[in-house]
Structures are given as structure tokens and as C-alpha cells.
Amino acid sequence: MKIEIPQVKKRVHELRFPVRWGDMDAMGHVNNSQHFRYMETARIEWMCSIGCQPAPLGQGPVIVNAFCNFYQQLAHPDQLLLTTYVSDPGRTTFESWCTIERESQPGVVCAAGGATVIWVDAALQKASPLPDWMRAVVS
């Protein structure tokens, strides 16, 4: 399967975040599942910052897939810089991306991943077109 990488990603948010002691596993590094939590936290903080609050009974974003590539181990007490990007708006979806760096090593990506975001109508339980305001943000 060929993965299409977008030519242009729009940088939309930065978040500084500490590695917590409990994020580590028996191997002494951050457990891989935590990277998805870090990216989720960055994505949700960005969405809230643009007025896209969770709406369990209305319309809003839902993740339909997610991935992460791991390049360097992270450990407590690293301080992280998570940078969120968006790209490829479609009729009902857009792509979100995140890089994870140590603040002490700017520009060195320790992990990178992303997620496809689909806009859904919770009451109808189906995809809905991206609202114009969201399309403008992710374009």
C-alpha cells in the first residue's frame, strides 16, 4: 500500500508538555501508547483554541485512523514540544499531523504521526460536510 504524503502541511498549533513518570514502561522509556495520548492532547488543545468544543449530541470531529512513527526514545523528565499541522481537506475529512521533539533538542523529531479527522453528525451517526469555518481553518 502506498501512503500519500501531502506536499503542504499547515502549521496550526504548538504545545509544550512534560513527560510524566507514569508515562514510562518497564523498559524505562515512554510507552508507545502514550505518544498517541500526546498527539491527542495537542489536537484537542488546538481544536478548543479555535472554538471547536466537543459536542457529543451535535456535529464535530471524530478520528477514523491514527498512526505514529517512533525515531528516538523519550523518558522522564523530558519536556516536549508537540507541533500540530493540518492538510488535505476533503468533503467530510481533513488530515492532522503531529511532530514530537524534546525542547532540549529543537528540530530533532523523536516521533511523528497523524490522524484522519472526519466531521460527523452525532444524532445521525454519519459523516457530515466540513463546515465552511473549519474548511477555512484547515485549508
Automatic annotation (TrEMBL):
The lineage of its organism: Bacteria, Pseudomonadati, Pseudomonadota, Betaproteobacteria, Burkholderiales. Pfam families: 4HBT_2. PANTHER family: 4-HYDROXYBENZOYL-COA THIOESTERASE FAMILY MEMBER, LONG-CHAIN ACYL-COA THIOESTERASE FADM. InterPro entries: 4-hydroxybenzoyl-CoA_TE, HotDog_dom_sf. It comes from the Bacteria. This is Acyl-CoA thioesterase. Transmembrane segments: none annotated.
